[in-house]
Amino acid sequence: MKLAAKGSSSVFAVIITWNQRDETLDCLASLRRATHPNLRVIVVDNGSSDGTVEAIRAQYPAAEILRNESNRGFAAAVNQGTRHALAQGAEFVFWLNNDTVVEPGALSALLAEAGRDRAGILIPLITYFDQAQVVWSAGAGLNPLTLEIRGNTLGAIDRGQWQEVLDRQHATACASLIPRLTLEKVGLLDERFFYYYDDADYSLRVIRAGLRILFVPQARVQHKVARASGGVDTPYHRYWMGRSSVIYFRKHVRGWRWAVVAPHRLASALRTTARLVLQRKRATAAAYLRGLRDGLRTDLSSPSSSDFSA
Description:
The chain is of the alpha/beta class and 310 residues long.
């Protein structure tokens, strides 16, 4: 499969919001500076109560808003916006966290590489918003035994060491350009992941479908990191990390691999819990353990709501 990336391609940015008015307005301002002539913006609001929707309508009337009465979670909201974009003829969908700032030329750089053979996802270099040379993500590999991310570039210093487009095995949904043909072949995000691990699951599905995840270092995005969940190591953040991690491994680990994964994951859970307790974050530790429990209780026999045509 080979896509022809043309300057006139129809691109829809799908942005998910939940009570982050200022961050969302910053993200939209950065998209306004994008050079692509056929970029349209869909904002899916998960029941914000801080005036986010009203501010978007006032400042960015061209943005289309899909408003939910309550927080449906990241994966379900992304799917909602993606289906809407596809129904309007989108050739590419740009999944984007609302706490990101897209640097000028980033979208054009991603589209310029979309014609590569079997391009399934195209990802930019993502740095921290307040430390633009510190890397948050440049894609990653995948451990074939444990199915965990390896070769993560988190915290690396960007010194221009990445010049060529590179194959990766993990893409973050924080900023990912998805061709329509990928969505038709692989489907959408699995909505059983309310927050977190939805992109790990999707990356694995894309790779197993014979498609490629391409890291395009010339495209740059800045990320404010975990603003939607209140910050790293808050109870909300750790609950969903715990729950979604269990769902991910239950979904993909089979047979003998459990002999490797089970003790590895147990050790990881014990380390995380001990660290939080020692840091006197007992409420966060308790939330994390509840997340692990609820991940074990999640019914994986039910439909995932990830079908392209649903």
